[in-house]
Amino acid sequence: MHKEACSVFLKNSKRICPHFLHYRSELHIPASVAILTSICQVPSIDEDPEGWFEAVDLSVRAGEGTLNQREVLEVLKAQLPLDAQRLEEASDGLLACIRRDFYRDVEREARIPDVRENKEEWFDYWDYDKSGTLEQEEIVRALIKTFRLSDDRSRIEQMRSVVSAVWGIFDPNNSGGIDKDEFVARDGLAGKGGGS
Ligand SMILES: [Ca+2]
């Protein structure tokens, strides 16, 4: 599921059930249900920690404003490229498991490759789940970091919409992700102005 953005159901701006679903802008909600509910895309925790907390917290409506282990576990399984079974079974605790998987990211942040100098390295860097393709959310994440938009929620959403709107141009075979050949191709995402 983590390859696509995920969302939660809301009613009167509060989360109403523990389920996560794939987010698609064209997602169809029957009119009868739409009156009562809406869908909120769960933001990335490093781009918008407050928005993430609000989207994940099932207990906000009770005024608690706290996350329990189950809420955190479920959103991590939905949002991140984690081994869900290993996460459930982690004998040394949730935090230790996450730390093992993601601590390396802190070191990675310090050395983001320059796309103009090495497209392939840039591609590998942002292929977060090592799937061999860049998915929309991976591109959005890369652009947000590159343009330092992490604190600006409206511009993050704007960026997400722009990437979504032009996605078909860069993913001509509609595979859901851009592979490395497509990426470095002359007319691919990195091709224009890439200097090669
Ligand atoms: Ca990927």
TrEMBL record:
The keyword Transcription does not apply. It comes from the Eukaryota. GO terms for molecular function: calcium ion binding. Residues 114-149 form the EF-hand domain. InterPro entries: EF-hand-dom_pair, EF_Hand_1_Ca_BS, EF_hand_dom. Keywords: Calcium. Gene3D superfamilies: EF-hand. This is EF-hand domain-containing protein.
